[in-house]
Design a protein that fits this description.
It holds the Pfam family UNC-93. It is a multi-pass membrane protein. This protein has three helices and no strands. It is mostly helical.
Length: 127
Protein backbone atom coordinates (compact mmCIF):
# COMPACT_ATOMS: atom_id res chain seq x y z
CA UNK A 1 0.00 0.00 0.00
CA UNK A 2 2.81 2.36 0.78
CA UNK A 3 4.42 1.55 -2.57
CA UNK A 4 1.23 2.53 -4.41
CA UNK A 5 1.04 5.79 -2.49
CA UNK A 6 4.64 6.65 -3.24
CA UNK A 7 4.13 5.82 -6.94
CA UNK A 8 1.08 8.08 -7.06
CA UNK A 9 3.09 10.91 -5.47
CA UNK A 10 5.92 10.42 -7.97
CA UNK A 11 3.47 10.51 -10.90
CA UNK A 12 1.88 13.67 -9.54
CA UNK A 13 5.28 15.32 -9.18
CA UNK A 14 6.24 14.38 -12.75
CA UNK A 15 3.00 15.70 -14.21
CA UNK A 16 3.29 18.99 -12.34
CA UNK A 17 6.89 19.43 -13.46
CA UNK A 18 5.86 18.77 -17.08
CA UNK A 19 3.19 21.45 -16.78
CA UNK A 20 5.68 23.98 -15.50
CA UNK A 21 8.14 23.05 -18.28
CA UNK A 22 5.42 23.62 -20.87
CA UNK A 23 4.60 26.96 -19.25
CA UNK A 24 8.27 27.99 -19.30
CA UNK A 25 8.56 27.00 -22.97
CA UNK A 26 5.43 28.97 -23.85
CA UNK A 27 6.78 32.05 -22.05
CA UNK A 28 10.13 31.64 -23.79
CA UNK A 29 8.46 31.41 -27.22
CA UNK A 30 6.31 34.44 -26.46
CA UNK A 31 9.33 36.44 -25.33
CA UNK A 32 11.26 35.51 -28.48
CA UNK A 33 8.30 36.47 -30.67
CA UNK A 34 7.92 39.82 -28.89
CA UNK A 35 11.64 40.49 -29.24
CA UNK A 36 11.55 39.77 -32.98
CA UNK A 37 8.51 42.02 -33.46
CA UNK A 38 10.18 44.90 -31.58
CA UNK A 39 13.39 44.46 -33.59
CA UNK A 40 11.52 44.50 -36.92
CA UNK A 41 9.51 47.53 -35.84
CA UNK A 42 12.63 49.48 -34.96
CA UNK A 43 14.26 48.55 -38.27
CA UNK A 44 11.17 49.65 -40.19
CA UNK A 45 11.00 52.96 -38.30
CA UNK A 46 14.69 53.89 -38.10
CA UNK A 47 15.47 53.19 -41.76
CA UNK A 48 13.32 56.06 -43.13
CA UNK A 49 14.15 58.21 -40.09
CA UNK A 50 17.88 57.96 -40.78
CA UNK A 51 17.34 58.61 -44.48
CA UNK A 52 15.29 61.75 -43.82
CA UNK A 53 17.72 62.97 -41.16
CA UNK A 54 20.68 62.54 -43.49
CA UNK A 55 18.92 64.56 -46.20
CA UNK A 56 17.60 67.25 -43.85
CA UNK A 57 20.20 69.93 -44.52
CA UNK A 58 20.35 69.22 -48.26
CA UNK A 59 16.67 69.19 -49.11
CA UNK A 60 15.18 71.76 -46.73
CA UNK A 61 17.43 74.72 -47.53
CA UNK A 62 14.67 77.35 -47.49
CA UNK A 63 15.55 79.60 -44.51
CA UNK A 64 17.79 76.80 -43.18
CA UNK A 65 14.78 74.84 -41.98
CA UNK A 66 16.71 71.57 -42.28
CA UNK A 67 19.60 72.68 -40.10
CA UNK A 68 17.36 74.29 -37.50
CA UNK A 69 15.12 71.22 -37.35
CA UNK A 70 18.18 69.03 -36.72
CA UNK A 71 19.15 71.38 -33.90
CA UNK A 72 15.63 71.13 -32.45
CA UNK A 73 15.85 67.31 -32.59
CA UNK A 74 19.18 67.33 -30.75
CA UNK A 75 18.08 69.69 -28.00
CA UNK A 76 14.74 67.96 -27.46
CA UNK A 77 16.41 64.54 -27.40
CA UNK A 78 18.83 65.62 -24.68
CA UNK A 79 16.09 67.22 -22.58
CA UNK A 80 13.69 64.29 -22.96
CA UNK A 81 16.37 61.69 -22.20
CA UNK A 82 17.47 63.51 -19.06
CA UNK A 83 14.12 64.51 -17.59
CA UNK A 84 11.18 62.76 -19.26
CA UNK A 85 12.15 59.12 -19.62
CA UNK A 86 11.28 57.84 -16.15
CA UNK A 87 8.00 59.78 -15.74
CA UNK A 88 6.89 58.81 -19.26
CA UNK A 89 7.51 55.11 -18.67
CA UNK A 90 5.94 55.18 -15.20
CA UNK A 91 2.78 56.83 -16.59
CA UNK A 92 2.31 54.83 -19.80
CA UNK A 93 4.29 51.62 -19.20
CA UNK A 94 6.91 50.08 -21.44
CA UNK A 95 4.67 48.88 -24.26
CA UNK A 96 2.77 52.15 -24.72
CA UNK A 97 5.97 54.19 -24.39
CA UNK A 98 7.42 52.32 -27.35
CA UNK A 99 4.21 52.77 -29.33
CA UNK A 100 3.97 56.50 -28.61
CA UNK A 101 7.61 57.03 -29.55
CA UNK A 102 7.01 55.25 -32.86
CA UNK A 103 4.14 57.66 -33.57
CA UNK A 104 6.56 60.54 -32.97
CA UNK A 105 8.95 59.12 -35.56
CA UNK A 106 6.10 58.75 -38.05
CA UNK A 107 5.10 62.40 -37.50
CA UNK A 108 8.69 63.43 -38.18
CA UNK A 109 8.79 61.50 -41.46
CA UNK A 110 5.37 62.77 -42.59
CA UNK A 111 6.30 66.39 -41.79
CA UNK A 112 9.09 66.16 -44.36
CA UNK A 113 6.60 65.56 -47.16
CA UNK A 114 5.47 69.19 -46.91
CA UNK A 115 8.54 70.92 -45.42
CA UNK A 116 7.32 74.17 -43.92
CA UNK A 117 8.57 75.60 -40.64
CA UNK A 118 5.10 75.42 -39.10
CA UNK A 119 5.10 71.62 -39.59
CA UNK A 120 8.78 70.84 -39.20
CA UNK A 121 9.59 72.33 -35.80
CA UNK A 122 6.60 70.94 -33.85
CA UNK A 123 7.14 67.48 -35.32
CA UNK A 124 10.81 67.62 -34.33
CA UNK A 125 10.02 68.64 -30.79
CA UNK A 126 7.56 65.74 -30.41
CA UNK A 127 10.25 63.33 -31.53
Amino acid sequence: MSDETSNDNNNTDKSSSNGSDDNKQAKSRRAKKNFIVICLTFVLIYTPYNAVTNLQSSINIDKNIGLYSLAVISVCSVVSCLFLTHPFISIFGYKWSIFISQVGFLLFIVANIYPKASFMFPSKSVL
